[in-house]
Amino acid sequence: MPSFDEVLKEAGEFGRFQKRVFFLLCQTGITFSFLFASVVFLGKAPGSFWCRIPGAAELSERCGWALEEERNFTVLPLRLGNGSSIGECERLDVTWDTSVSCASPLAHYGNHSVGNLPLATCHDNWVYKHPHSSIVSEYNLVCSNAWMLDLSQAILNLGFLTGAFTLGYAADRYGRILIYLLSCLGDGICGIIVAFAPNFTVFLIFRFLQGVFGKGTWMTCYVIVTEIVGSDQRIVGIVIQIFFTLGIMILPGIAYLIPTWQGLQLAISLPNFLFLLYYWVVPESPRWLLTRKKGEKALKIMHNIAKHNGKYLSPHYSEITVSNEEVSNPSFLDLVRTPRMRRNTLILMYAWFTSALIYQGLVMRLGIVGGNLFLDFFISGAVELPAALLILVTIDRIGRRLPFAISNIVAGIACLITAFLPEDIPWLKTTVATVGRLGITMAFEIVYLVNSELYPTTLRNFGVSLCSSLCDLGGIIAPFLLFRLAAIWLELPLIIFSILAVVCGLLVLLLPETKGISLPETVEDVEQLSSHFGKCGKKQKHQDTNSYI
């Protein structure tokens, strides 16, 4: 009875059929990147704003003031009395009523008493020059409420974390394509509700749910792609992330053309409904069907794949076996019970956490450093394309470990240098920061590959799922770390990023090199791998592709 890998080799490991499915599912990477990085534009600074004095709206209407006139009457006296205040987070503690003069509303306080007028903290009475440009102005996420913007991104990442476990389990139990289609539907519906959320609480609830379903789309599309290609086609795991980068590059163009946050939210959410058409063109994973004892359906799909690839399956292929069976109910203890498994697990968890935290931190930092946000964001995305090319060129020549370590160390050093470069040399500061973004992007993409190569077949799916969950934990912490530390000193987050990245680079050197080594089948195989070269130094024969992001 032939194994699935043997049948796939005869049907074509990466023929016309797989290339079509691969291209279609890669589009999910674009929409997922929209969701991943959208906070930079959804939560961009709303421009000028000030705190309105109670009664000012009625008086402004009675006096026929334009907004600029009202601002002058509100903010200028405040500046006279308190030169450090610009009227954004505090106001004069006075009330304007019908007795107030339109020409000089503060006249009855006297010219010399303005500096002695009491001040009050502003809570919910802000006026914005561009009131619907971002969620910041829509939900008053300014001053003492500024941390709520951090919360919105943390909630999204919490959704990613939840989706990784819940929909990952569902995809194992109910099928890849079913969960993919349901996730696309949920992502689109939740995205629409987010765009029309009546208050910030509803916004957060459905942004969390959009994160859950968004992670489901990205995770399952990655798994489907890797499960229908041959074991030697590892390149698909890197190439699919190039489409994520393309989304990062496209996003600023969409944000530039659509000035309101609601319009942008709809633009990045509605494409998910188009993916529902994949029901007719993307089949269920035959590898998954075999694990669920549905060999006839799997064989029918394999015949269809062979037909589209111009191949022909032998008639004696009436049944297929699965060579890689997963153990039931693996636990965290299985990953740390033996010395080298424990070392690999802890280092990989830290690498996932660090890569996600620094990557998201550098992406969101573009929204607070000034300059041309749209152009800077596009350039920072474009620099990720060389990262994928460098990985493809180096991993099969130099290996995994050295590029993994160097990319982290380069990212850390670049962040440190950027923090201390003077502001009057913007081109140099941008160039060095771009090198940091290139380095952490390479590290982020390599960890996907290395993680699956360092676990035995029986624990690979569970090990990758557990370690990559630290990616979402890093994403939850990133906005708080960035925005709160930047409030102390704009470059302080870069110092933290540099320390984390350099430590990660040094730890990665303790991992075994997996270039040219067959994937470990058992825990004993992992224990035989050394930091220099493993005893399993055979040419790679296969790769388990049931690994989640």
Automatic annotation (TrEMBL):
> Where is the protein found, in the record's own terms?
Apical cell membrane; Basolateral cell membrane; Mitochondrion membrane; Nucleus outer membrane
Q: Which domain of life is it from?
A: Eukaryota
| GO BP annotation list | dopamine transport; histamine transport; monoatomic ion transport; norepinephrine transport; serotonin transport
Record key words, sorted = Cell membrane, Glycoprotein, Ion transport, Membrane, Mitochondrion, Nucleus, Transmembrane, Transmembrane helix, Transport
How would you describe this protein's topology in the membrane? Multi-pass membrane protein
Q: Which GO terms describe its cellular component?
A: apical plasma membrane; basolateral plasma membrane; mitochondrial membrane; nuclear outer membrane
Q: Which InterPro entries match?
A: MFS_dom, MFS_sugar_transport-like, MFS_trans_sf, Orgcat_transp/SVOP, Sugar_transporter_CS
Q: Which GO terms describe its molecular function?
A: monoamine transmembrane transporter activity; neurotransmitter transmembrane transporter activity; quaternary ammonium group transmembrane transporter activity
Against Pfam families, the record matches this protein to: Sugar_tr (PF00083)
- Tell me where in this chain the Major facilitator superfamily (MFS) profile domain is found: 110-516
Q: Say if the entry is tagged with keyword Transport.
A: yes
Membrane-spanning parts: 21-42, 154-171, 178-198, 204-225, 237-258, 264-282, 347-368, 374-395, 402-421, 427-450, 462-482, 488-511
Catalyzes what? (R)-salsolinol(in) = (R)-salsolinol(out); (R)-adrenaline(out) = (R)-adrenaline(in); tyramine(in) = tyramine(out); dopamine(out) = dopamine(in)
The family assignment reads: Belongs to the major facilitator (TC 2.A.1) superfamily. Organic cation transporter (TC 2.A.1.19) family.
Q: What is this protein called?
A: Solute carrier family 22 member 3
Q: Which organism is it from?
A: Zapornia atra
Q: Which gene holds the coding sequence for this protein?
A: Slc22a3
